[in-house]
Amino acid sequence: MTTERSLILFKPDCIQRRLAGQLLSRIENKGMKVVGLKMLQVTAELAREHYAEHVEKPFYPLLEEFITAGPVIALVVEGPEAISVMRALMGPTNGRDAAPGTIRGDYGASRQMNLIHGSDGPEAAAREIDIYFTAEELCDYTPTLTEWVCADDEM
Question: Which of 26, 33, 104, 117 is the catalytic position?
């Protein structure tokens, strides 16, 4: 298995609903290692950089309005197959379609106000992490519980 990193954003609706602690607990309980974490206000410029592939699409103005409406918490998580693990933990984009047990299935009922963003592939993860974090803001460490999360041949 490949150890990967993924950018995770707790979106403004997550912060306003005071769900950040619960979401962080679920991520850590899943065995993901948090190697970067900070709160920030997404600007229009940052939104355009992050969502560059969507800027010309008709829905983009609403997306920018939403993501800049309040603070977000940005995280970088690391672990075996972190991208697919996080996408499964989050559930489908639309909370109405998400199964119970996923973050969006348990806390969401909207397509746009869907609480959390996660990178959708290795290239996107690398690009998004570089947008939100400098190398100095990421901490490389080995948790003492690592050997109890995955077998050696899974890391």
Answer: 117
